[in-house]
Amino acid sequence: MLHSAHDVARFKSDHAVVVIGAGQAGLSVAYQLQQRGIRPVVLEKHRIGYAWDQQRWDSFCLVTPNWQCRLPDFPYDGNQPEGFMPKAEIVAYLQRFARHVGGDVREGVAVQRLTPKGSGYRLITSEGEMEAEHVVVATGGYHAPRRHPLAERLPASVLQLDARAYRNPAALPEGPVLVVGSGQSGSQIAEDLHLSGRTVHLSVGSAPRSPRVYRGRDVVDWLDRMGYYAMPISDHADPRSVRAKTNHYLTGRDGGREIDLRHRATEGMRLHGRLATIATDHIGFADDLAGNLDQADAVYCRIRSSIDSWIQQQGIEAPLEPPYSPCWQPSAMADPGIDLSRDPLAAVIWCTGYRSDFSWIDAPVFDGAGLPAHERGVTQSAGLYFLGLPWLHTWGSGRFCGVSDDADYLARLISLRLQRRDASQERLECTAILGS
């Protein structure tokens, strides 16, 4: 049963396990713990599905096929396994999973401080204090939007939004829009605006892109068969930096398709390099658009090539496709930028990433960049764990397809530690009785 904060008059003072966050990660570990006879308290700052519902634009949908939604004992149950769930269906799926999990889920409860206390942890929440022996932090890693340092120089007449605040083209003032950042959010929001007929400027960075369908199958299907999504980070070619890499851009919109920014340029989308300068009447861009597009295409072609090699190794019959050929090239002339006096912008949408904020955790478990140091979610502070972070263990760790395995791993470890504690306490009690 789900409880609101107002339904909870008083917390218990002590719990074996508290889970912070009731998204797909927090609910998954709660379910896996309950399968082992452990009933955790799950604290959710907002409500089930809040981030999917309130921090995504209206046309948002998954970029991975629905069949990859594999929460524990609760796989996708709709009639479009090869489709891509839109926002409302994602929220509904997560809410159904919450009912499937059941348990002690408390919505509207924010954890304001977490500190070690004795052999466990003290939590200060919006509803009072509580203590826990084990704490799983499942709040994700995308907490605060990043904006370009020059954002404050934009004229006050230009509306500024972060990606998670954008909803739809009609909600913006009339006029051209600049989207800064070409990762998944930036490229999809730029398309959303472009397809509505808006004039769109897109500042293109170094984000890679991916095919959608190749040689008869969705690329996610091929990569899943190839074991890419189950590969642990320790086997990755670049484990030190992979967690910080930008996701490949493509879309699940309109039944799923790839995003070719060059093609959008032929239709009138105005592509620029990285944002370089902002003055009262002018926005300038670096001369790196061609290189950034080439780099994205190189990744696109490498993915296709790796699939080709695997198909050949496995002896699979699959239709051939012609090599990729770019349909548009940037002008060799320097980008004049945007003259705000002649072509004023209605809005700028910042799709420049997010930073983590774990400042509310007073435990020595962070690296110099403020990120948790862990081994598959297990920290050096006994009883403190993280779940649902990008590449926590595999590519799927922060997604619907892989969080179940990580949740199962932590639940097994916590269960073992609780069993050892109980056995140790029993031995101490027996010793005390025999000694008396």
Describe this structure in words.
Keywords: Oxidoreductase. InterPro entries: Auxin_biosynth/cation_transpt, CHP04046_FMN-dependent, FAD/NAD-bd_sf. The protein has eight helices and 22 strands. With 436 residues, it is an alpha/beta fold. The protein has two domains: 216 residues, FAD/NAD(P)-binding domain, CATH 3.50.50; 209 residues, FAD/NAD(P)-binding domain (3-Layer(bba) Sandwich). Helix 1 runs parallel beside helix 3 and helix 1 packs across helix 8. The protein is globular. The two termini are 46 Å apart. The N terminus is likely disordered.
Summarize the structure.
This protein is α/β, with parallel strands linked by helices and 436 residues long.
SSE arrangement:
Blueprint: E1 2-4, E2 14-20, H1 24-34, E3 41-44, H2 50-54, E4 70-71, E5 74-75, H3 87-101, E6 104-107, E7 111-117, E8 120-125, E9 128-137, E10 144-145, E11 159-162, E12 177-180, H4 184-195, E13 200-203, E14 213-214, E15 217-218, H5 219-225, H6 261-266, E16 270-272, E17 275-279, E18 282-285, H7 289-314, E19 338-339, E20 347-350, E21 354-355, E22 384-386, H8 403-435
Helix pairs in contact: 1-3, 1-8
InterPro entries: Auxin_biosynth/cation_transpt, CHP04046_FMN-dependent, FAD/NAD-bd_sf
Pfam families: Pyr_redox_3 (PF13738)
Keywords: Oxidoreductase
